[in-house]
Specification:
Nucleotidyltransferase, domain 5, 5-stranded mixed sheet, 12 strands, 15% strand
Length: 532
Amino acid sequence: MELVGALFPHLHGVVVDRVVLAESSVHVEARCVVSAASCPSCRGTSVRVHSRYRRRLADLAIAGRRVLIRLMVRRFFCTDASCDRKIFAEQSGLASRYARRTQLAGGVLETIALALGGRPGARMTDALEVPVNRMTLLRIIRRIPDRPVQAPEVLGVDDFAIKKGQNYATILLDMATHRPIDVLPDRSADAFADWLRQHPGVRVICRDRGGNYAIGARAGAPNAIQVADRYHLWANLGEAVEKTVLAHRACLHPPEPAAEEQPEPAPVQTALAPDGVRDVHGRERRLVTRTQERYAAVQTLLAQGKSLSAICRELNLERGTVRRFARAESLDELLFKATHRVTKLDPFKAYLIERWNHGQTDAAALFRELLEQGYRGGKLTVRRFLHQFRGHHHIPQPGPRPIKPRHATRWIMTRPDRLTDADRAYLRQIRDRCPELDRTAEYVRAFAVMMTGRQGGNLERWLTTIEGDDLPALRSLAIGMRRDQDAITNGLTLPHSSGAVEGAVTRAKAIKRAMYGRANLDLLRKRILAQH
């Protein structure tokens, strides 16, 4: 019996009469031993036994064998004449009413269901020798009672996509414990305001710069302090800096030498299109022409008041393409991206020119040499690049690779002490050549000091200075910040941040993707709220 007690420590209030070992299972015969039972309706105690019956309860496996407990349960007469219930069954505590498995096994299945969901959870239960159907696991999740929601002092709020571009939900977080406390079925201002009214007591609301949550917070908790997240502020500044760099991308490269200082031009290296763009077999020229035509068509339809969806249908273009042409600051921004595409061959062009000058003009042989050096592109790309050199015996090496706008943006947005010496030198040259980018870098440094030093009181002066400058992208950013200035000032002053909310959103997306979109929001909500 000591061994039985060690194997089944959770069998409280019952006596094990017999244990039968089968080939792949263990059968346990048990019975309740309490002398009296309480009626679930009137709570009266009874000792009058009406009858007996057996319950079959599945338990956790032992040594890879399934366990089945056959529990003898008694029915009792209710001795209270005024009670509507005449007989009732005793409860041993081993399992809940009407359950088919013990509470220990049910707790394990609940944990598996919350962690893995339906099909993956069912595969795990098969491995643990407590097999259940995937739908059973989903029912277990849905039966879990919701924890009572208490409004935290500091609330985090953000949205995540149920179906990207169509349906969105809202996740609410207790910023003290970093645990989700509720999930709303949409991201509307009214839904958020209603939740705040039903759960008073929120003092601080951490949010991104979305307008719906700002409106909902003002309506549902007018006395709460709204805090804009610093990460989103820095990301918005980075987007404005990138647009500014693209607008002044001509300053990224050193000026061409004067005409009298230029060396004798080498033999024709590439054919030049009339617009000055390199035209290898006309490919880049056709790309430029297509970009110009699409930009003109999209801008014309926008001027007529048509929506992006209507433009997509009329021009037979993807929505992302139309959005890119509609939001471009100018045609030059699109042409720069179209004619400065990075290819897999770029790191190997200097080597190809060197080998060509040494007499190796066989494209197939050069392609094999590139493969040995790690080239992963196609042979046709190499042939097209070498075709422009046919008929010339000496080709000058290309100059230094041009600085990419995204590199310049990264240099401006990075702390100076974290830049390499080379990057710091490049940035200094760019700032010396372009006063606009120099001022942009200064604005970024001032904002970084203000953000890391919690100097939100300097925001007004920073915005006023930018509004008086002639940098359109930064001025547009300043106008947007004016609409949410109080929350931004709080975000740059108070220690609160939405970082924990972003982490919760990432976990919610992982759960959603693991469910392959087959479950409703109620099931997803249960699994999100069960996160520890």
